[in-house]
Each structure stands twice: as C-alpha cells, then as structure tokens.
Write a structure and sequence with these properties.
Elements lengths: L7 H14 L4 H13 L1 H19 L9 H40 L6 H8 L37 H7 L1
Helix pairs in contact: 1-3, 2-3
C-alpha cells in the first residue's frame, strides 16, 4: 500500500470497498487479505464496511405510487404526444415557408402574377392608353397586297377606316 499516492487510510478504504464489491485484481485481493490478517485497524474498517453494506441492503424499499405498467404507459404516451407536436410544427412550418416562398417568388417574378396585375389594373389610366393584343392569326382578313399595290394609311385615319373604305 505504500506505493499509492493517496494517504494510507483513504487508499485502504477505497481498496477495501473495491474488495467488497468484487472489483479488485488478483494482486490487490492478496494485498487486502494480508492487511486483514496483520492490521487490526484495517480489520475494524472492514467490519464497519460490511455492517454498512448489510444495513443498506436491509433498508425497506418504499412502495411505488405507480405500477411498472402505468409508468411505462405514461412515458410512452408522453413520447407519442411529443412526436405529434413535432409533426404539427414540422407541417405547419413547412406550410408557412411554402406560402412565404411563393409570395416572395411572385413579387420578384418577371411575369407578374394576376394579383399584381389586378393591383395595377385598378390604377387610373389616361384616355390615350390602349390595349395591344398580339395574336398568331389576325381578327379580320387582311387583303394581300402586291408590291405595286402598297397600303397607304394617312396619319389622321385609323387602319380600320382605310380597310373599310376599300
């Protein structure tokens, strides 16, 4: 025991405690048995540790308020509840994120959304503005003109007036 860095009594106490718990090596077991046979102080400490161990083992175990089944059912119910809450937060957060991303994307989109077009449509317009529609086929048949027969449209007349007069 002299090769330990602890004081003699602390090291002895720890060694005896480990010996009682069956946590010593063969060399340490032999050292404890030599101490017990030769040292009356170690014998007294050993008897006190044995007595303390027996008393701890003889302590009454208080009855549980809940049976093992009730306790396990309550634990699993709590786990299930937390899983449900986690799923609700996950789905709700995902839905909110989707709405925010859609809103932000529609604001910065080059092809404006109907919401923004509706907001712009309700703004007052001047009488000079007109609606321009581009179609693949014209609404009315256009006469085919040759190079000799150019379509002359005076600046003070509309295209419809010129076509209607011909």
């Amino acid at each position: 025991m002299s090769n330990h860095s602890y004081p003699h009594d602390k090291c002895t106490f720890e060694l005896l405690s480990a010996y009682l718990d069956g946590e010593v090596t063969a060399e340490q077991r032999q050292e404890v048995q030599e101490l017990l046979s030769n040292n009356p102080e170690v014998q007294g400490l050993y008897r006190r540790l044995l007595y303390l161990r027996q008393e701890i083992n003889n302590l009454p175990i208080p009855p549980s308020e809940y049976s093992a089944k009730e306790l396990s059912d309550a634990v699993f119910a709590k786990v299930d509840q937390q899983n449900k809450q986690r799923k609700i937060w996950l789905w709700g957060g995902g839905a909110i994120a989707a709405v925010l991303l859609t809103t932000i994307g529609s604001i910065f989109n080059e092809n404006r959304t109907p919401l923004l077009q509706f907001a712009q449509k309700n703004q007052p317009t001047s009488n000079n503005e007109s609606l321009i529609i581009a179609l693949n086929e014209p609404v009315i048949e256009m006469p085919v003109k040759t190079d000799n027969d150019a379509l002359m449209i005076p600046l003070d007349h509309s295209l419809m007036e010129v076509i209607g007069n011909k």
